[in-house]
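Notes from hallway chat w/ T.B., transcribed later so I don't forget. T.B. wanted the structure written out for a chain they're using in a teaching module, and asked if we could keep both sequence and structure tokens in one place. Agreed to drop them here.
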Amino acid sequence: MMHKKLIGAGMVLLMTAIPAMAQDGPSDPQIAHIAYTAGALDAEAGKLALLKSHNGAVRDFARTMIRDHEAVNGQALALVKKLGVTPEANATSAALSKQAAQTHARLEALSGAAFDRAYVANEVAFHGTVNNALRMTLIPSADNSELKALLDAGLTLFSEHQAHAEQLAKKL
């Protein structure tokens, strides 16, 4: 139960940062930083799962998270380079990083089935929050059509991740 409270608290922090930014509308450099940060953090969580989990399904899921998020981040880096845009740190990307550090520390202290359940529960919550942010704030706020297209493609993929995590959570 404690892991659900911690995940919930972190998601509340993130959800308060995104709407606050949305009032002014995040800029494309801020959107790029948020999206890249979210992807990098989820890949790192997957790497932790590979170190800690012995469950084949959890390990397969973690490998998928690493592969997909690193691939999308590679596309994002290529796009910002092509566009000559420098991603801009902001309150939302900072909130993501802060929550990820807290979650990492909490997950690191767990083992076995407790780790697996907490990791997958975090993946469900994280993808739900990020997908909602993409849908409601980041995609509508993006000015550049190529950035918007990359975010749309990411939302499709990350929605699949969320569904996969939800199914996995039911099995754990």
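Follow-up for T.B.: The longest helix spans residues 112-141. Might be a good example for the class.
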